[in-house]
Amino acid sequence: MAGGVNRKISAASARAHTRRGKQSSSKIPSGIVTAMLAVLIVGISALAYQVIQPPPPKTCGSPGGPAVTAPRIKLRDGRHLAYKEHGVPKDNAKYKIFFVHGFDSCRHDSAVANFLSPEVIEDLGVYIVSYDRAGYGESDPNPNRTVKSDALDIEELADKLGVGSKFYVIGYSMGGHPIWGCLKYIPHRLAGAGLLAPVVNYWWPGFPANLSKEAYYQQLPQDQWAVRVAHYIPWLTYWWNTQKWFPSSAVIAHRMDIFSRQDVEVLSKWSPEENNYVALARQQGEYESLHRDMMVGFGTWEFDPLDLKNPFPNNESSVHLWHGDEDRLVPVILQRYIVQRLPWIHYHELSGAGHMFPFADGMSDTIVKAVLTGDK
Question: Sheet of 126-131: strands edge to edge?
C-alpha cells in the first residue's frame, strides 16, 4: 500500500516537474531582453541621426563640385570668396561700395549695382563690389560662420582688393546681418552704411517681449516654425526644411503669398536669367547656404544691435535704413522700434512698398545718393 502511494506521488511530482521545465524553457532571460532593447534603441538612434545629418557640401573646384568661374580671393583661414566688380574702374573711383546680397541669392543679385543709372555711376565715380557670402554661389562654405565672421570677410575682401582704409557697405534683406556686424566689429573701416529691408532677429534682447511676439506672429505659420527651429534647435534645421510631414519655410519655397502687391509687380519684370540665379546660389548645397543663413541670422548673436553706438559721432558720415510699410517678410514695426532706440540711423519708410523695393525703378539711384552724399 505504501509503495503504491509512493509511486503515485512520484508520478505527480514528475508531471509537475515537467510542467515547470516547459514553462522555464519558454521564458527569455531578462538580460537578453535588455540587450535586444538596447540594440533596437541604438539602431533607431543611428537611423534618426542619418536622417537629420545634412549631406556634405559640393564645394566649388573640388572633385565632382561646381566649376569656379568667378574671380576669387583666398582668405586667411583658407576659404575662397567669389566677387564681381561693377561701375567705374577701382583706381578711378571716388566712392567704393560693398554690396551684401540677401537670402537665397548671390553676387549677381545686386540691386544697387544692377539698377544704378550710368549717370550716377559716372557723375559720382562709383565702384561697387558684390560678392557671394560664405556657402553661396562660388564662395566656400564656412561651418563656423557667425555675424562677426561675415563682417570680417568683408574687411578681408576689401584689403585683398586694395580699396583703401575706408569703404561703404550696403546690405539687403538677410544681407543686413553682416552690416550690423560691420557696425559692431569694424566701424573704423566704414565710410557709411545702408540697410535695405534688413531681416530682424526676433530674439534680440533689446526688443520688448510683446513687440517681438507681435512681429513674430505676423509671419506665416510655417515660417514661424522654421525660424523657431533655427533658433532653438539649429541641429534640426536641415531636417525641418527637407522633411515632407509638415510645411517648411515658405520663403525657401518661394511662395507668392509672402509678397506684397508691389513685390509681385517687381518680380514680374525680372528676366529668366535673374530667376536662374537661384540654382547658382544653391549649387554647393542648401545646408551651407540657406540653412546656415537661418541658423546664423536667427540664432543667438554675440551682441545686441540695439546697444550699438553711432560710428559717426561727428556726423562725418551716416547710416541709413529703408523699409516698406507693406513688407510681408519683415514686419515694419520692428524697424520703427530699432530707429527709436538708435536715433542716429536715418530712417526712410516707403509707403506702399514691400520687400523687393530695392529693385523698383529709380530706387538704386535714391539709395546710393543718400548713402554717399546724404542727398534725400
Answer: 72-74, 80-87, 126-131, 95-100, 167-172, 190-196, 319-324, 345-350
Triad 161, 166, 167: Cα angle to 5° = 70
Instruction: Classify the C-alpha dihedral 23-28-30-31 as positive or negative.
Output: positive
C-alpha cell read off for 268: 514680374
Mean pLDDT of 226-233: 95
**What's the DSSP call for residue 92?**
G
**CA distances (Å), origin 194, targets 111, 119, 190, 255, 324:** 13, 21, 11, 27, 15
pLDDT in tens, 234-268: 999 999 999 888 888 999 988 888 999 999 998 88
Measured CA distances, 206 to 179, 201, 342 (Å): 18, 11, 11
Residue from 375, 289, 373, 367 nearest 113 by CA: 367
